[in-house]
């Protein structure tokens, strides 16, 4: 009997060992993944404690407990997003008591901070209502009627002659009857990389357009022309986003040369759907628009938190600085880090440089909406001290005053694993030290955003108001019918958003930069 019991114990022990061995085989992989993500969660919070604009309102690491955001049932990206959202729930405006990062367009996402896959770092944090496509289309659904909101001129849609206001009657032979039917047909088209549209520009003549998905160089200028009314010559361009500086220069330089040759005396910059992009591109446009007497004067200043300005954000020692070719920057034989950057206001002051552009503008008008954000707002704010700036607001209902998005905050990406972290890092102030537009820049006048009309035409209520056309015509637009309209916007994700600063623009502390060496290939 004892012998039998001994055999049974051996068999039980064998299966226990096998079971434990199998589980132990799984444990290292799970633990390794958890440890890696937990370390990144720690890094994100420690970075926030060092570089976040409102870092003085954040709790201690122990109290915040970053590792609690690890969730085996969620993607790595979602774990980081959840943590970043929680980080942004502490900083409050002392005057209003409201959260700085409360997002009016999406309450489930921070207003300024986010994280992106490094391959998409140029995009900045994206919004949920965007759609991705390589046809170059962005659309609006108004009362179940589908129209183009804007079209990139370089895209397949642009080359096919499609434009804002064009109505889409059917997709791949199926009538567009509701917003739901549009989304269903849209998904099918993306999977096929092909779309066939039946469209009409005037509601009478119809035509068929076939588009093949294709990569294309973004053209940020979706429309440009010159408007005339008596002796007034008004230049106009609609800017979709603040693209990288080389791209911005390529498409805007010839436009401003044309404006100069035509001797325009007023300018309209349409930013109604522009959510920002690169700061340096806003600088470029400001230099083209500003009067000559602004030359060599302050354009704007960047104000980091006190800890960064005083050079005490030690966490940045862990993040190396790379040049534009992704090579480490070396000084005195040492690879330098983001800790070696000068974050003082003096080192982060941008000045006007009037080498060319327009010189005699009497007035500049900005057409904006509640989606106008970041670099767009920066451009408006930095020109205000130097010239007559009028802000024309457009909205779907035309019922209340229009405020822009409200983002006087900028950032640059900091690597965390395979991602880039964008935290609200510095406040942007113009030459008059004005920056308090966290609630948005208020428009001087509010008009209807008529999505049935193309950009830059007199039928657009904003253009009509600027030209001084009959106010009765505009007033008729603000009828009870407008109030009943239901809008849904679907923007293409080819747009840039934010106040993005390239790390190549960062200034190294003077005592280090005296002996700088960058390795050659």
Task: Record the SSE blueprint.
Blueprint: H1 2-51, H2 61-64, H3 76-87, E1 114-117, E2 130-131, E3 137-142, E4 145-151, H4 156-159, E5 167-171, E6 174-175, H5 179-192, E7 194-200, E8 207-212, E9 221-229, E10 232-239, H6 245-261, E11 266-270, E12 276-278, H7 279-289, E13 298-304, H8 306-309, E14 330-331, E15 334-335, E16 349-351, E17 363-368, H9 375-383, E18 389-395, E19 409-410, E20 414-416, E21 419-422, E22 426-430, E23 445-448, H10 461-467, H11 471-477, H12 480-484, E24 487-492, E25 498-500, H13 510-513, E26 516-517
Parallel strand pairs: 2-24, 10-11, 11-17, 12-25, 17-18, 18-23
Antiparallel strand pairs: 1-21, 3-4, 3-24, 4-5, 5-6, 5-7, 7-8, 9-10, 13-16, 13-22, 14-15, 14-26, 19-22, 20-21
Query: How many strands in all?
Result: 26
What is the count of DSSP helices, taking H or I runs of 4+ residues? Answer: 13
What is the fourth-level CATH superfamily of the largest domain?
A: 2-enoyl-CoA Hydratase, Chain A, domain 1
Form type: globular
Number of domains: 3
What is the CATH C level class of the largest domain, in words?
Alpha Beta
What is CATH's topology name of the largest domain? 2-enoyl-CoA Hydratase, Chain A, domain 1
Give the uncertain stretches in residue-range form: 1-17, 120-130, 472-481, 514-521
Looking at how many chains there are and whether they match, the oligomeric state comes to single chain
Helical coverage, percent range:
25-40%
User: How far apart lie the N and C ends?
Assistant: 79 Å
Radius of gyration: 27 Å
Rounded mean pLDDT is 87
Query: What structural class should be given to the helix and strand makeup?
Result: alpha+beta
Estimate what percentage of residues fall within beta strands: 15-25%
Largest sheet: 8 strands, mixed
Under the CATH scheme, the architecture of the largest domain is Alpha-Beta Complex
